[in-house]
Amino acid sequence: MSPLIRLSEEAANPLIPHTAELIVGTIAFILLFLVMRSKVVPMFEKAFALRTEAIQGGMEKAEKAQRDAEQALTEYTAQLADARGEAQKIREDARVQGVAIIEELRTKAQEEAARITELATASIEAERQAAIKALRTEVGTLATELASKIVGEALDDQVRQSRIVDRFLDDLEKSN
Amino acid sequence: MSQIAAPAGPGYEPPSTADFNLPPVFGDSLYTTKPVLLVLLSIVVISIFFIIASRKAAVVPSKLQFSGEMVYGFVRNNIGQEIIGHEFMRFVPFLFTLFTFVLVNNIFGIVPLLQFPAMSHVAFPYVLALFTFVIFHWVGIKKQGLGKYLKGIAFMPDVPKAVYILLTPIEIATFFLVRPLTLSLRLFANMFAGHLLLLVFITGGDYMIHDTNLFMKILAPFSFAMGIGMTFFELMVQCLQAYIITLLTALFIAGALADEH
């Protein structure tokens, strides 16, 4: 090849390379290649990797946020349902309790009424007995007095007096 | 160019291949010619730009880092990953170097003051094609073993035996001669022709404007306008050629990695 190259340095055949340019071209290309391989390509690759990572990280973060939000929503929905259930239960309890209270009050009132009625009856009975007793005594005394006045005979003897009165009253009841 | 555009000369001397053999910029060495210095300048410019652009490796890139990443991402994803497949990362530094080296040197062809595409000197495309040639064969041999790799090239499977008479020489020529030659000559010829085209319009305009004929003077601006138009066209060709050489290199590597062609 060397004779050709020497020729090219003199003649102007553009297809025949110059030795100097072959050497410089080779060295220059290798130098540039070394710079690209050691400095430029790794740094660009690093930037690309970082970017990919950042995008993936961002997406993962967004996904996590969405998952969290969904979970929170589920929790809140569950809590709301619980609260509704609780309210329903409280209302139900209140209703039951209300019914019980009314029932209890009614019973109490009835009992009270019964008691009052009974008391009244007893009281009336006692009054009646007392009245009967009083009347009996009074009537007896009056009658005795009257009779003694009529008969002129003092019937102050208590026992006798009482016996006479009883007999009189019994007769009276019988005649009725 | 000023050498040829002799303003008051006897006639227009069109630019020729001689215009590509510039004298040394300084000294008397072939190592100080314009294309050599431009290639050296290009690796300095590319290195500085990409080292600064990639230095921070920030998640949220600055404008500078973003522009560097755009070029890198283009080569890495649109050429490397898409064509080579899952093993692409090994070849990204090479493909990226190839792309930026060719791109910047091509664009130097229209950068004011520099204005010379180093790739129009065939030595540089030859060097690049040689790297590609060595790499894709080495990858194929390493992946499939020397015997199997050569057999795969020479005797394509699932082909009737008689066809080998025709196919084997073609395939061997393709892999060992045509591929590196076309790869380098395509780049060289595009840059060479493009530069020549710009020379024609600009030196032509220069010649016409200095001509004594008024008609020629009137037409001169059109020649300059064409020169400017062609400069934009060249920009497109320069970018395209950088893309094509990288794309083809990736395709060759992908072919060598694949079990059968």
Q: Which terms summarize this structure?
A:
heterodimer; A: about 180 residues; mainly alpha; 3 helices; about 90% helix; about 0% strand; rod-shaped; disordered N terminus; B: about 260 residues; 7 helices; about 70% helix
Topology of this structure?
The complex is a heterodimer of chains A (176) and B (261).
Chain A: H1 2-10, H2 19-151, H3 158-175
Helix pairs in contact in A: 2-3
Chain B: H1 34-54, H2 63-84, H3 92-107, H4 123-144, H5 146-154, H6 164-209, H7 214-257
Helix pairs in contact in B: 1-2, 1-3, 2-3, 2-7, 3-7, 4-5, 4-6, 4-7, 6-7
Describe the 3D structure:
The complex is a heterodimer of chains A (176) and B (261). With 176 residues, chain A is mostly helical. Chain A has one domain (2-175). Chain A has helices at 2-10, 19-151, 158-175. In chain A, α2 crosses α3. Chain A starts with a helix and ends with a helix. By secondary structure, chain B is mainly alpha-helical. Chain B has helices spanning 34-54, 63-84, 92-107, 123-144, 146-154, 164-209, 214-257. In chain B, α4 runs parallel beside α7. The A-B interface holds A 9, 12-22, 24-26, 28-29, 31-33, 35-37, 39-41, 43-44, 46-48, 50-51, 54 and B 16-18, 20-21, 29-31, 33, 35-36, 39-40, 42-43, 46-47, 50-51, 53-59, 61, 65, 68-69, 72-73, 76, 92-94, 96-97, 100-101, 120-124, 126-128, 131, 185, 188, 192. Chain B: GO terms for molecular function: proton-transporting ATP synthase activity, rotational mechanism. Chain B: It is a multi-pass membrane protein. Chain B: It is found in: Membrane. Chain B: Keywords: ATP synthesis, CF(0), Hydrogen ion transport, Ion transport, Membrane, Transmembrane, Transmembrane helix, Transport.
- Category by helix and strand content of chain B: mainly alpha
Q: Can you summarize the main beta sheet of chain A? A: none
Chain pair sharing the greatest interface: A-B, 34 and 52 residues
What is the average per-residue confidence, as pLDDT of chain B, rounded to a whole number? 89
Shape, principal axes of CA atoms of chain A? rod-shaped
Question: What is the structural class of chain A?
Answer: mainly alpha
Number of domains of chain A: 1
Multimeric status of the protein: heterodimer
Q: Helical percent range of chain B?
A: 55-70%
Distance between the termini of chain A: 175 Å
- Arithmetic mean of pLDDT of chain A: 85
Order of helices and strands of chain A: HHH
- Beta content of chain A: under 5%
Pfam families (chain A): ATP-synt_B
Keywords (chain A): ATP synthesis, Cell membrane, CF(0), Coiled coil, Hydrogen ion transport, Ion transport, Membrane, Transmembrane, Transmembrane helix, Transport
Subcellular location (chain A): Endomembrane system; Membrane
Membrane topology (chain A): Single-pass membrane protein
